[in-house]
Amino acid sequence: MIDPFGPLGKPAFFFVNAILGQRNADSYPIEKFRLTCEKFEEDSISTWLNAVIGPCLQELYLSLKVNVMFAIKLPKAIFTCTSLKSLVLKGDISLYYGPEFPDVYLPSLKNLELNIARVDNKFLSGCPVLENLKLILQDMTPKGFVYIPTIQMPQTLKSLTFEDYSIVCDEINHRVIDTPSLEYLHVKIVTPVFSELQISVSHFPNMVEAHVDIREEHKLVEHVCWVPMLLQALRETKLLALKPYTTRLSSTQCLFSAPAFKFPEFHRLLNLELDIPFFNTNFLLNFLHSCHVLEALEIRICEEVYVHTMDYNGPTPPTMVPSCVTSHLKSFEFREYQSAADEYEFIAYLLQGGLVLKTVTIHLKSGFDRETKYNIFKDLSAIPRGSRICQLNFH
């Protein structure tokens, strides 16, 4: 981080202009340029960018805080830099040009990270070989006030991190993740009251890790009916984490209330991490019956005062022990354990039925006194175990 102003308020790094101006571009081409700064004037930044953009530039990183009321617009030459392979834009930068958006053609760009004030969906369509995308859409600040009704992710993506805080009330928002080659997905979406969000996804046959964080500011579950559809699309993943950004209405809570919802068959899932708003044995058992080779299970009760217990609308689980419990499950971790009767019975169920379990780790919810902790430890330690090598740990 550089403060370019000296004690008299004059630029302390005026020599940058001289260096870039005197550089012989043919003899000393710039392949990588990284600029992280505050308080620079827009004219200086534009001058520097125009000097470094050229046929040899491969990596460009910009994180800017500028002295303008609105975010800075980049030189249009960036949008057609054919050699650019990696582009990171953060801060007070705008990629919204309205109906006069410039042509975008970045045929070499494989890595793109955008965490900026304004963005236009047209930008993504000009990246034909993009593999890694990190896209963070901020909330509606004065610098970022632009409504983006539809976002279409490039089909070539292998890794996507998508955080969306920009959804507008009283509008229909559409996010399209039609990316059949996707292997890594991290999605965090916040939808306010009176908004309607639609998600369209493809099947992800190559998925390795999927992290889904959903926050709903209301309890209108019909507005998030796409959550079961997203889970169906993720059925080939090896790691699945449903960990809500907050728990007012989480992705797992949407599954609780989804009418006639049936879990997809997870034939490759090895690791499952669930944040659940309240404990429900039938929900967990139905999930486990669909995870045929699951090796590690982690659950956390993320109960909040404003979350009310919902009825689970799913079917009654089969009476037999899930096949993954008897033959594959090696690790189970329970966070925020409250020693409720159904929680105790579920742990006993896994300890007795888990024939290959190696570790069961219990994290007690805070607030228990010393005697209560001891009694919990004693009761759980007395449960018979189906695996001779199973270790019971407490935190």
Please provide a brief summary of the model.
By secondary structure, this protein is of the alpha/beta class.
Helix content: 10-25%
Mean pLDDT: 82
The strand count comes to 18
Q: In angstroms, what is the radius of gyration? A: 26 Å
Report the structural category: alpha/beta
Flag low-confidence runs.
Answer: 1-10, 245-249
Report the portion of residues in β strands. Answer: 25-35%
Fill in the keyword field for this structure.
395 residues; alpha/beta; 15-stranded parallel beta sheet; three-stranded parallel beta sheet; 8 helices; 18 strands; 18% helix; disordered N terminus; FBL13/AtMIF1-like; LRR_FXL15/At3g58940/PEG3-like
General description of the model:
Strand 13, helix 4 (251-257) and strand 14 form a beta-alpha-beta unit. The two termini are 41 Å apart. Helix 1 (15-22) packs parallel to helix 2 (42-52). Helix content is 18%, strand content 28%. The longest helix is centred in the last third of the chain and has 13 residues, at 341-353. It has a domain at 1-126. It is elongated and about 80 Å long. Residues 1-10 and 245-249 have low confidence and may be disordered. With 395 residues, it is α/β, with parallel strands linked by helices. The strands form two sheets. The chain has a 15-stranded parallel beta sheet that branches.
